[in-house]
Amino acid sequence: MEEGKDPATANRSGRFITWRFLQYLLLFLVLGLGISIISMNTLRYLGPQNQNTITPLHRSNSIIWSTEPSGLESWISPPKNLLHNMIDAELLWRASFVPKIKTYPYRRVPKIAFMFLTKGPLPLAPLWERFFKGNEKLFSIYIHSLPSYVADFPQASPFYKRQIPSQVAEWGMMSMCDAERRLLANALLDLSNEWFILLSESCIPVQNFSTVYRYISQSRHSFMGSFDEDGPYGRGRYNPYMAPEVNLTEWRKGSQWFEVNRELAVAIIRDSKYYPKFKRFCRPACYVDEHYFPTMLSIHYPDLMANRTLTWVDWSRGGAHPATFGQYDITKEFLKKILKSNCTYNDHTTTQCFLFARKFSHSSLEPLLALAAPVLGIH
């Protein structure tokens, strides 16, 4: 004992220090137990039985927790942003997923995917906007343009933010088919899309939306031209190096502008057998966009093909491109001529053959809008 210090005071001081230490220790234990209980309850609340699952991501020897949707909605919801960062190989692989169970476990409303292959603006967009109005749950829109083009559609337009990641497409080259496969793959990411229509910026609808939807949804066939044409523009474009994958008797020609169902769309984007042959051996004056899809599909799916297109064009003027129609070409008589034709639909003869037409210039817009309601039924 130090000299001059009271023994009783020293004993009280020691007991006080011991009691204070016990108080701190008890408080620490209580806080630790409380934190543990709260953590366990939080994990239980956010566990697998809840809509979101907490998944640990390991980075640099540390754990970062993130939430991932685990319900059916995460699989069936279409992408909110079409401008993804997938390269083509990743996109085609992802889009090729096909459900093995054909019965959908939710109420699925089949939609038509309208795919616009264009260099830049859509000068006939006002006519299309009138065509789409009121049918928002029955269609999707996808635009493949030059990569440098940035669309400025207003938010109220169905074309608003519908551009997909694009690359340059050259006429007559495989890059054109690449663009078409890119459109199909992006559209396939939406499981509600059942039918896929390829259009250009010079295409117009020549029937109202209800007629188009009924015509396509009730058809037993997809509409892609596929025929065996003799002469320099058909069999004359065949390269013997295409064999054995494609023989001369299997060589087909058809219109670039098509409509296919989901089964054929998946077949197109997952093909790796015919693609290399067409890319290597079908170059101008063999125009690959007129032969690749018609030939491949006619070999494997002949019973699903109507062997005709739904898009009217006029080749009567001759040349490498069909006729283009402007302001002074648009009359009631002209449009009625497009509407009345002869073809086969579901194995029966009909006069209703075309749902779309091309090529129309920007100057044709005003007279088309004036005649849309009385002639085409587009209000």
TrEMBL record:
It comes from the Eukaryota. It is found in: Membrane. Keywords: Glycoprotein, Glycosyltransferase, Membrane, Transferase, Transmembrane, Transmembrane helix. One of its GO terms (molecular function) is glycosyltransferase activity. GO terms for cellular component: membrane. It is a single-pass type II membrane protein. The keyword S-adenosyl-L-methionine does not apply. This is Core-2/I-branching beta-1,6-N-acetylglucosaminyltransferase family protein.
